[in-house]
């Protein structure tokens, strides 16, 4: 989905120059990557990404944040905006694909699996970058969840 996202960004007039907009750096904790809207830069964590598939997944996730920033100029200091882009990235990047959760992470479930996974990952992403309580992160995610979960742009639907 990396090429798809790069093409979608280009259609919006937000071209990505790898040398200018992507950096690799060491990271702390369980972080795999991130998007810095102020620098318009994605960073990949060189010490936690272990193979090409993981890098593609992280790039897709961060490209969704970059796409959201390009598309709606979200305010990174607004917790609702952050929650929305985290919901979209978890939903559309493959973070919560059924096979990944059930086989890769042993998080078994059928009913509303995608929604539960997206909420959990969005809350955890907020907690990783903002100094807020879990309760506030959960309440914020819940307050924007339906609209943001159902916004699949630039995809026609949640990718398989």
TrEMBL record:
<dbReference type="GO" id="GO:0046872">
    <property type="term" value="F:metal ion binding"/>
</dbReference>
<dbReference type="Pfam" id="PF09768">
    <property type="entry name" value="Peptidase_M76"/>
</dbReference>
<keyword id="KW-0645">Protease</keyword>
<keyword id="KW-0482">Metalloprotease</keyword>
<dbReference type="GO" id="GO:0033615">
    <property type="term" value="P:mitochondrial proton-transporting ATP synthase complex assembly"/>
</dbReference>
<dbReference type="GO" id="GO:0005739">
    <property type="term" value="C:mitochondrion"/>
</dbReference>
<keyword id="KW-0479">Metal-binding</keyword>
<dbReference type="InterPro" id="IPR019165">
    <property type="entry name" value="Peptidase_M76_ATP23"/>
</dbReference>
<comment type="similarity">
    <text>Belongs to the peptidase M76 family.</text>
</comment>
<protein>
    <recommendedName>
        <fullName>Mitochondrial inner membrane protease ATP23</fullName>
        <ecNumber>3.4.24.-</ecNumber>
    </recommendedName>
</protein>
<dbReference type="GO" id="GO:0004222">
    <property type="term" value="F:metalloendopeptidase activity"/>
</dbReference>
<dbReference type="GO" id="GO:0034982">
    <property type="term" value="P:mitochondrial protein processing"/>
</dbReference>
<keyword id="KW-0378">Hydrolase</keyword>
């Amino acid at each position: 989905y990396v090429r798809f996202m790069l093409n979608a960004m280009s259609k919006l007039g937000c071209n990505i120059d790898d040398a200018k907009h992507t950096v690799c750096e060491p990271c702390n904790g369980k972080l795999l990557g991130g998007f810095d809207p102020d620098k318009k830069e994605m960073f990949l964590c060189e010490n936690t990404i272990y193979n090409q598939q993981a890098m593609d997944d992280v790039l897709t996730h961060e490209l969704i944040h970059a796409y959201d920033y390009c598309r709606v100029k979200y305010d990174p200091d607004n917790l609702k905006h952050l929650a929305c882009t985290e919901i979209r990235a978890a939903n559309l990047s493959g973070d919560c694909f059924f096979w990944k959760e059930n086989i890769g992470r042993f998080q078994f479930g059928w009913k509303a699996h995608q929604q539960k996974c997206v909420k959990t990952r969005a809350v955890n992403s907020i907690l990783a970058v903002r100094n807020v309580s879990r309760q506030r992160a959960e309440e914020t995610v819940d307050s924007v969840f339906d609209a943001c979960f159902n916004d699949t742009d630039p995809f026609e639907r949640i990718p398989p």
